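Hi Y.,

Following your request, here is the sequence exactly as I used it, all 321 residues.
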Amino acid sequence: MSRSEATGPEDPDGTGIDLSTELCGIPLENPVLNGSGTFDALAARKAFGDVLVSEFPFAGFVSKTITVEPRAGNPPHRLWETPSGMINSIGLPNPGLAAFCEGDLGELSELPVPLIVSVMADSAEGFAELVEAVGGRAGVAGLELNVSCPNVHSGLIVGEQPDEITALVRTLRPLTGLPLIVKLTPNVANPERVAVAAEAAGADAVSLVNTLKATAIDPDNNRAWLGAGGGGLSGPAIRPVALAQVRAVAAAVSIPVVGMGGVSDGESALEFILAGARVVAVGTENFRNPRAGQVVREGLPDALQRRGFGSLAEAQASTLS
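Below is the corresponding structure, written out as tokens. Let me know if you'd prefer a different format.
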């Protein structure tokens, strides 16, 4: 077969390496998503025009996290650069459910890739309102459950407690036929216990890792730099931690894992695949390069070939000893 004959929808870069895959039945041309809140597709489209749509850097798009009521986010300062990483304390600013459904959702559904909407609430009732409202809208392929908020009824962080995850997912599972992807925190001793609970309750996938708790001190006044006092560390600095947790979770569950935490090129993306992730998400790198997703995708074929794989599926099927 000639190079041109091998090039097709699953091989847009003409390498002969098939990068196509799927996540919970959602077809993807390649395994590269964005991390929620790290790439503003609407702002990027305004800045770069329709080329953003025709040359979209990700195979699937995860929205900013939406809450029932509007959120202004945390007070400044919100970002602090670290060696090989970044601490963010953005605080999930968003227009709220009603405004999102009336405005942003329509434009996001025009993107040329599947749309996954991220939602968060501080109670099962709030999550249910979000899931029912967003899950019934055309153009939504899946839902990400951001479970980093304390439950108002128990005071516990839902994503840190297997029992809380079980109760939440069991409540939400009957409300939608869309895939439910539970976003896990790394700030627990055994994330695999939370992942197992999510799977048993009906989750279709889990994603990890979210950011690690962190803070920064202002060198000029010896106070916390971030307006909220602390935030979350992300970027290549946390990649070894993320790989260890992805590997542990992937070994404990049979549902797909979305791996993230310092994905910056094809090699680091493949490391997550080999640790057990089905797909990866690019986060911090988007702040430095709005085409980071494209860079990761274009680097994957060479990374796969260097490690002896003829396709993404072969790498996904391999296991670390």
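The domain at 3-71+93-209+235-317 is CATH 3.20.20.70 (TIM Barrel).

Thanks again,
Q.
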